């Protein structure tokens, strides 16, 4: 079986305390054919210096590219420049605060070789804290591999794929055959998951391959507010999740148009996906205004009507989602924050 060349896209920002361990875990992989593309995004806390020290002490054969210091670019611009320099058939995502198991790349290469229709693979992860303490033994609960494909009858854009960017690996076309990631907010995983489903299959694997660190400064799940924060701040933070899902709309529609023009997806798939993008936008508009302390009732009713007329096949599901969102809106702000706070990892 041929050995595919892998590019590890290693991105860091303000992660001095963790980046040395994270980078070593990549450089010590047991896989023979890979490169590491390191993009530090303008860190000012000594992260770059730690990376430089690790590279100076490394004596192995892995090809390494370390971009010169720049001003802060933002996550997606940083990823774009790394992808542009990458030569691999497979792109493995790695962050400066997570730790990869030594067999991660070998497992990724073997799986892609055995599943030619797979374009995205998400391994399981252990959740660890700032000091490496175990917070959760595994992120995904399914004991068997799960495969996801784009189904026209589905009412979910990502087909209920529980993608996790911290453990993601992609075939190169997911990042190379589409335009560079748009520089709006949010992470790359939402867009890459959709691209993978347009091109073929996405898989969730039960094998733990990454220690995913939650330490209070993560982009999404780990950015916890302390109990000392006021209720309004907690609700604004929680509402930010729905806002983050809304802002992907422009990038999703652009990628769908591109996929249709280039023949990367069929016309029915693109048309259905565009409908689902619109649905997600209004559903998250509803959730945002039902969570934010200054959410507007007028927008709640407008978005609710848009959600309810989305699809006769999922009408009762839409009613349930609208009722849950409005019920939270009716709660006093302090109680609303307590009800929603368990999601804030």
Summarize this entry quickly.
With 345 residues, this protein is an alpha/beta fold.
Please describe the topology of this protein.
Elements: E1 6-12, H1 16-27, E2 34-40, H2 47-57, E3 63-66, H3 75-85, E4 90-95, E5 99-100, H4 104-114, E6 118-128, E7 134-136, E8 146-148, E9 168-171, H5 172-176, H6 189-199, E10 201-213, H7 231-246, H8 249-262, H9 267-291, H10 297-308, H11 315-330, H12 333-340
Describe the structure.
The structure is a single chain. This protein has 345 residues and is of the alpha/beta class. It has two domains: 208 residues, Spore Coat Polysaccharide Biosynthesis Protein SpsA, Chain A (Alpha-Beta Complex); 113 residues, no CATH class. Helices cover 44% and strands 17% of the residues. Strands 1, 2, 3, 4, 5, 6, 7, 8, 9 and 10 form a ten-stranded mixed β-sheet that branches. α1 packs parallel to α2, α8 runs antiparallel to α9 and α9 runs antiparallel to α10. The protein is globular. About 2% of the residues have low confidence.
As residue ranges, the low-confidence spans are 221-228
Helicity, in percent? 40-55%
The helix count comes to: 12
Helix and strand succession? EHEHEHEEHEEEEHHEHHHHHH
The dominant shape is: globular
Q: State the CATH class of the largest domain.
A: Alpha Beta
Helical/strand content category: alpha/beta
Mean of pLDDT: 91
* Total tally of structural domains: 2
Report on the biggest sheet.
10 strands, mixed
CATH topology of the largest domain: Spore Coat Polysaccharide Biosynthesis Protein SpsA, Chain A
Computed CA radius of gyration, to the nearest angstrom: 21 Å
Tell me what the CATH architecture of the largest domain is. Answer: Alpha-Beta Complex
Q: Number of DSSP strands?
A: 10
| CATH H level, superfamily name of the largest domain | Spore Coat Polysaccharide Biosynthesis Protein SpsA, Chain A
Distance between the termini: 41 Å
